[in-house]
């Protein structure tokens, strides 16, 4: 009886993240992990993920509210930024719910729903970044016809594709593509199967390659435009050079931030095994969530139109001194 009671107390001391832990079949490793886990009532990694989710949700909720309640922010660029902010908002909420459910209502069904929600949200976030990249390319490549109805149709099609694909990928584990019935097929992110996680990682590398290609083409177009302007206005050659250099640097920062956030986790999804310690998964997943924290700063808060709307919403003291025209992504 005492042994049984002791076993129950040890098993319930720490509800480790069911969707991140790896099933270890080596008795010594399991004992070591359990002993280390008993030192904390709550996993510190889960606290950091929850804190990250809270910051993400707050940041992006403001962006979503600004775009939703501002009639002037209705052109294709802001529609896509709104899609990105919505996806990141849902991802932040998902991280918070995962923490709450994990320690309050831990079950396989809740685990499946939570991981499916997070997969759909983060997939929509990454896909929205690709859509924004396509929009920026179109605004430069077809600058004269960018504000036509045709562009708006393209944007709507990209949104349908983005959220449709994200929803499908998020539903896969809920509809049965999981490892709850066969632990040997689990990946580093339980209850996702290794084949499922491989599909997600491969999709990320495909999207990242497309973004690299498009941003390279954007750089070529920007440099070409700057060269043409410099030939026509020889007195402003230096200023155009500085502006071009700043634009290319901004693109490098955008890609560098995205790659630094997601590449470690995507690579580990391909090479990691379920027997590896969960700390490796946490250590690569946490930086990936930072991308959703940085996105509103890069794509929203640095935008003058959104800054103006924030002044109107929170300060109420912005004086409109004239007509205002929303700029295209190429101008931004």
Oligomer: single chain
Helix and strand pattern = HHHHHHHHHH
Give the count of helical stretches.
10
How would you sum up the major sheet? none
Main features:
single chain, 332 residues, mainly alpha, 10 helices, 0% strand, disordered N terminus
Description:
By secondary structure, the protein is mainly α. 74% of the residues lie in helices and 0% in strands. The longest helix has 39 residues, at 194-232. Residues 1-16, 21-40 and 318-326 have low confidence and may be disordered.
Could you give a short description of this structure?
The protein has helices spanning 2-11, 27-37, 44-69, 76-104, 108-141, 149-174, 194-232, 237-271, 278-301, 304-315. Residues 1-16, 21-40 and 318-326 have low confidence and may be disordered. With 332 residues, the protein is mainly alpha-helical.
Describe how the helices and strands are arranged.
Elements lengths: L1 H10 L15 H11 L6 H26 L6 H29 L3 H34 L7 H26 L19 H39 L4 H35 L6 H24 L2 H12 L17
């Amino acid at each position: 009886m005492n042994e049984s009671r002791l076993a129950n107390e040890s098993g319930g001391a720490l509800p480790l993240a069911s969707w991140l832990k790896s099933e270890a079949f080596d008795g010594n490793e399991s004992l070591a992990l359990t002993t280390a886990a008993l030192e904390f009532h709550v996993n510190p990694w889960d606290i950091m993920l929850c804190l990250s989710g809270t910051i993400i949700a707050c940041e992006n909720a403001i962006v979503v509210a600004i775009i939703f309640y501002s009639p002037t922010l209705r052109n294709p660029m802001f529609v896509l930024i709104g899609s990105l902010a919505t996806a990141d908002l849902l991802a932040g909420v998902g991280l918070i719910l995962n923490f709450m459910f994990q320690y309050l209502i831990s079950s396989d069904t809740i685990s499946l729903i939570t991981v499916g929600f997070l997969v759909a949200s983060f997939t929509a976030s990454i896909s929205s970044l690709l859509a924004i990249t396509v929009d920026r390319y179109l605004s430069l490549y077809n600058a004269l016809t960018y504000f036509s109805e045709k562009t708006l149709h393209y944007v709507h099609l990209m949104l349908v594709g983005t959220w449709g694909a994200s929803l499908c990928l998020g539903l896969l584990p809920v509809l049965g593509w999981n490892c709850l019935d066969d632990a040997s097929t689990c990946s580093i992110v339980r209850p996702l199967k290794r084949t499922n996680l491989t599909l997600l990682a491969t999709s990320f590398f495909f999207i990242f390659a497309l973004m690299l290609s498009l941003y390279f083409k954007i750089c070529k177009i920007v440099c070409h435009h700057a060269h043409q302007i410099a030939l026509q206005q020889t007195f402003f050659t230096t200023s155009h050079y500085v502006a071009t250099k700043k634009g290319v640097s901004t693109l490098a920062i955008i890609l560098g931030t995205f790659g630094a956030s997601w590449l470690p986790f995507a690579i580990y999804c391909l090479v990691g095994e379920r027997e590896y310690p969960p700390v490796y998964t946490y250590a690569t997943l946490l930086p990936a969530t930072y991308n959703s924290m940085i996105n509103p700063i890069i794509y929203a808060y640095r935008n003058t139109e959104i800054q103006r709307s924030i002044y109107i919403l929170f300060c109420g003291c912005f004086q409109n001194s004239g007509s205002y025209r929303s700029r295209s992504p190429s101008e931004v």
